[in-house]
Amino acid sequence: MRMTATGTEFSGAPPSAHTGRATPGPYDAVPTPRGPSWWEFAACRTADADLFCVPDGVPLRRKRERERRAKAICATCPVRARCLDEALARDEQFGVWGGKDARERRELRRRLAS
Fold first, then answer.
1. The whole model's pTM is what?
2. Residues 102, 94: contact at Cβ < 8 Å?
3. Rounded Cα–Cα distance for residues 72 and 18 (Å)
4. Most buried one in 13, 35, 71, 106, CB count within 10 A?
5. What is the Cα–Cα distance from 7 to 15, expressed in whole angstroms?
6. What percent of the chain has pLDDT over 90?
7. Environment class of residue 32 by beta-carbon count within 10 Å: exposed (0-12), middle (13-18) or buried (19+)?
8. What pLDDT shows up at residue 114?
């Protein structure tokens, strides 16, 4: 069992081990070649990737608008906490992950470290 920065606990056990359900939910899923992964439940999986990781050269005003739209998608996502945990664990430096942009994740890391 592992406690993550967002307070989510998961053990990496097969999906049905968490709930006993035959069909896994987003917090049951673990990335394996044989079964569903948490990101298969992500609200962003069919969205434009440029919303979540704005390409270089985009004016700051447009970048902030795209990030705002990405965060709106994240707000509806059933795996937002898992996504944020992944970004924190991998020290993602760019893009919107789990509803937080890079600056917000840096601030969160500082708060968690203190």
1. 0.69
2. yes
3. 29
4. 71
5. 19
6. 59
7. exposed
8. 87
- Whether the per-residue pLDDT at 14 is higher than 90: the answer is no
Length of the chain: 114
Q: List, in sequence order, the alpha helices (H) in the chain.
A: 15-19, 49-52, 60-75, 80-90, 102-113
What is the rounded CA–CA span in Å between residue 75 and residue 100? 10
Helix 80-90 / helix 102-113 crossing angle, nearest 10 deg: 80
Q: What is the pLDDT of residue 109?
A: 93
C-alpha separations of 63 from 7, 47, 53, 77, 86 in Å: 30, 16, 9, 21, 23
Residues in the annotated binding site for [4Fe-4S] cluster? 44, 74, 77, 83
Q: What is the pLDDT of residues 82-93, one digit of tens each?
A: 999 999 999 999
Q: What is the pLDDT of residue 95?
A: 95
